[in-house]
Amino acid sequence: MMRAWVLPMLFVLCGLAVATGLIFGGSPGAAAALLLAFLAFAGVNSPLIFPRSIGALEAQRRSAVDGRPVVFWRPGCQYCIRLRIRLGRSARQLHWVNIWRDPAAAAAVRAANDGNETVPTVVLAGRPHTNPDPAWVRERLPPSA
């Protein structure tokens, strides 16, 4: 759990250090702007922008019932962030699994990617797709009710 927050916390701490230096250097406006930028980077790289993660086995069970894809992801992954942002509200229709929280999920991703933990890996109808185009994923979502 803590591993997911390491990168965001580093962004916050670095932002605070840079802002403090700028404030003491006489540039409070620049300090505020840079601190906001660092906080934005921390937010984008935090688990907060992703739908709540579930375990790999639960995601596979739910996917078998409702036909929705399973997305294996990890915090800080720029490709996962790109997928999440480009899917917009449609992202809530997928089952998201954080591989840093679930060893079974990490093992499933390694099995699908020749031993590598390459994410995002989207599993649709039992077939893994590594780093698919967000438009491709959106086309394969079941119609909303």
Automatic annotation (TrEMBL):
Keywords assigned by UniProt, alphabetized: Membrane, Transmembrane, Transmembrane helix
UniProt xrefs under InterPro entries: Glutaredoxin, Thioredoxin-like_sf
Protein name: Glutaredoxin domain-containing protein
Record-linked Pfam families: Glutaredoxin (PF00462)
Record domain Glutaredoxin: where: 70-127
Keyword Repeat: no
Lineage: Bacteria, Bacillati, Actinomycetota, Actinomycetes, Kitasatosporales
Source organism of this protein record: Streptomyces tabacisoli
TM ranges: 29-50
